Amino acid sequence: MSHSTALPAAPDSFDFLVREEHHVANGTLLGFWLYLMSDCLIFAALFATYSVLSQSYAGGPTGAELFDLPLVALNTSFLLFSSITYGFAMLQMQQGKLKGTMIWLAITGIFGAAFLGLELFEFYHLIHEGATPQRSAYWSAFFTLVGTHGLHVTFGIIWLITLLVQLRKHGLTVPNRRRLFCLSMFWHFLDVVWIGVFTIVYLMGSMS
């Protein structure tokens, strides 16, 4: 003898208990701060590894022999100027000027792309001179640290381009303003990390 259980009829409409905005106030900013702290730990580990291996040349070329400090200084200025132009973009955002915000963001992206271009040129030069990542522990640590920072800049530029598309499509909405602020923290964080790279890797490496 079989028993059949009747399923309840589907309601014609749904009544949501929570009708207000689901996004927790300042939740994105808190989460992004936590992400930046985790990134700090990653770079701290890379800096520590580089410091330990900074004399492990295995008979190969040293940084002092191959570094082109004027080129690296020019590259550093590109990234520092990009941080200034991003600050101008944030000022335009606070004034509600969409066009000005997008123009300064585009200039920031150009400076970031110039930084990456010079960094790739430097990598090509070093590899051409025999300083490949597998040449010694020193160069492995160098390419890992500097390359990881370069990857962060690359993702930052992709994020910036995506944000430009969102701004063009939706304007200076509350979510887009929040995204601009998060990218601002990320971009300035990369500047601070690069200052550490320039000082510890290039300046101190050239004096060793």
TrEMBL record:
Keyword Ion transport attached: no
CDD domains per the UniProt record, alphabetical: Ubiquinol_oxidase_III
Segments passing through the bilayer: 29-52, 72-91, 103-127, 139-165, 186-205
Chain ranges of the Heme-copper oxidase subunit III family profile domain: 1-206
Superkingdom field: Bacteria
UniProt KW Transmembrane keyword: yes
Cell location: Cell membrane
Keywords: Membrane, Oxidoreductase, Transmembrane, Transmembrane helix
InterPro entries linked: Cyt_c/ubiquinol_Oxase_su3 (IPR024791), Cyt_c_oxidase-like_su3 (IPR000298), Cyt_c_ubiqinol_oxidase_su3 (IPR014206), Ubiquinol_oxase_su3_dom (IPR033946)
Membrane topology: Multi-pass membrane protein
Pfam families in UniProt: COX3
Family: Belongs to the cytochrome c oxidase subunit 3 family.
Name under which the protein is recorded: Cytochrome o ubiquinol oxidase subunit III
Species whose genome carries this gene: Zhongshania aquimaris
The gene coding this protein: cyoC
